[in-house]
Design a protein that fits this description.
about 240 residues; mainly alpha; 12 helices
Length: about 240
């Protein structure tokens, strides 16, 4: 009796076979690219998506998957560079990690700008674009873009925090304080880390603007949540002394 040899195909081989059988099923390309990316095989993943892009007649969905992959690949390079900079903290290693971060921010800015233009009603892309502009030090444009994103129900607190920071950098202190106050109200308790940061910034800025009652209010609220938050207790103490002189 001739023995039947059963060959077990790997996930990669199964997906490659599915693509050759159904070359217009883009989901199989996406699945294979994702599988490669999970194994840090970014060159192979990119090759798969470029092939899908040609096969689909340059479908936007495929284009965006490719963009996401390229951003992920650069993010992976940064993770490796930061690990190296931690293990071997030379100037060269630190500079490389910093340079890669800037390059990724520029790449992301271009991608999110295109998506923001393509989907003008989707505030998610305005938020992402605003954050990248801010990272690159373009606060003037970041403010405009983030203001257009501040009605995003999912990200309202996040958007307001980023917007407040840019306003503060541009020395628009009063609008920055109002923005942080709105962020405090918008942030749910599950975003506690961000809420504490908003209270701290509002407290410091109110103190700087000599609005001592407000500074006391926000720093007291913060200490109620986290007594050991940075130097909040010390700052509150100073403000209370000034108020009650």
């Amino acid at each position: 009796n001739a023995k039947t040899v059963s060959i077990q195909l790997t996930k990669t081989q199964l997906l490659q076979r599915a693509i050759s059988e159904f070359p217009l099923d883009m989901h199989k390309y996406f699945e294979l690219a994702e599988h490669y990316a999970d194994e840090d095989k970014f060159v192979e993943a990119e090759r798969v998506l470029r092939s899908a892009l040609d096969m689909s007649g340059r479908d936007l969905r495929v284009q965006e998957k490719l963009e996401d992959l390229l951003m992920r690949r650069e993010g992976n390079k940064i993770t490796i560079a930061e690990r190296r900079a931690t293990e071997h903290p030379t100037d060269e290693n630190r500079e490389l990690a910093q340079r890669l971060k800037l390059e990724l921010a520029r790449q992301e800015m271009e991608i999110y700008r295109a998506r923001s233009d393509r989907y003008p009603n989707e505030t998610q892309w305005k938020y992402e674009l605003g954050v990248r502009l801010k990272r690159l030090g373009n606060h003037h444009e970041a403010i405009k873009v983030l203001q257009a994103a501040r009605h995003d129900p999912e990200r309202r607190g996040l958007v307001l925090m980023e917007l407040g920071e840019s306003l503060q950098v541009m020395k628009q202190f009063q609008p920055a304080l109002v923005t942080y106050q709105k962020a405090i109200d918008a942030l749910p308790d599950k975003q506690l880390k961000l809420k504490k940061a908003a209270l701290y910034r509002a407290g410091l800025l109110a103190g700087g603007l000599k609005e001592l009652a407000l500074a006391e209010k926000y720093l007291s609220q913060l200490i109620g949540l986290d007594f050991n938050y940075k130097d909040a207790a010390e700052r509150l103490d100073k403000i209370q002394k000034l108020r009650h002189k």
